[in-house]
Write a structure and sequence with these properties.
The chain is an alpha+beta fold and about 180 residues long. The protein has 3 helices and 15 strands. The strands form 5 sheets. Strands 5, 8, 9, 12, 14 and 15 form a 6-stranded antiparallel β-sheet that branches. A 3-stranded antiparallel β-sheet has the order 1-4-13, with no helix packed on it.
């Protein structure tokens, strides 16, 4: 025990404890800045609207939210993974806690428990079957990739326009850049 106290006293005398504390504070600030300033792809356009019935494994769902992605850039936009979190950070929690929104996602939706989110899938080779985790969004106005989110009840258009439904996350790569595109829906 005395040896440990002597080591701590030596570290404090020469300022090593202050250096370790400073590195921790700098790491915390960098992490906060990364969360608040995401690496969004500026040429990706996301359109969200109400949709009708869809079929998911284990259930036929009466309501859904369709998410359309369009690339206005000059290079291909590769989506490695997309997921949706029906929670938002609010100012009254100092943006530290995610509060659930009014959006009620169907319980049979594919969930990612490590991210507390719902996984989104894209159309595969067979039309109208959404089973692919990754997709390519080519540049151009006519090149649109769509996915949908099954819901328990319809969402109001006002909530979509005010971006009060949740956050869409897209892990992507392009020729020049890669990152996570975050968009509030």
């Amino acid at each position: 025990m005395e040896n440990l106290l002597n080591n701590l006293e030596w570290l404090a005398r020469y300022g090593f404890i202050d250096i370790i504390f400073g590195i921790g504070v700098i790491g915390f600030i960098v992490r906060l800045l990364r969360k608040n300033f995401p690496s969004n792809y500026e040429n990706l356009h996301v359109d969200v609207s109400n949709s009708g019935p869809v079929t998911i494994p284990g259930a036929k769902v009466g309501h859904s939210l369709i998410i359309s992605l369009r690339n206005s850039g000059l290079t291909n936009f590769y989506i490695a993974r997309a997921y949706f979190r029906p929670k938002l950070r609010r100012w009254w929690c100092l943006w530290l806690k995610r509060i659930p929104t009014k959006l009620r996602v169907h319980p049979n939706s594919d969930r990612i428990s490590s991210k507390d989110a719902i996984e989104l899938k894209f159309q595969g080779r067979l039309q109208s079957i959404f089973n692919e985790y990754e997709t390519l969004v080519r540049p151009g106005h006519d090149e649109v990739q769509s996915t949908w989110l099954p819901l328990m009840q319809p969402v109001q258009q006002e909530e979509i326009e005010n971006r009060q439904c949740g956050v869409l996350y897209i892990e992507y790569a392009t020729k020049d850049k890669q990152g996570i595109h975050r968009e509030r829906i």
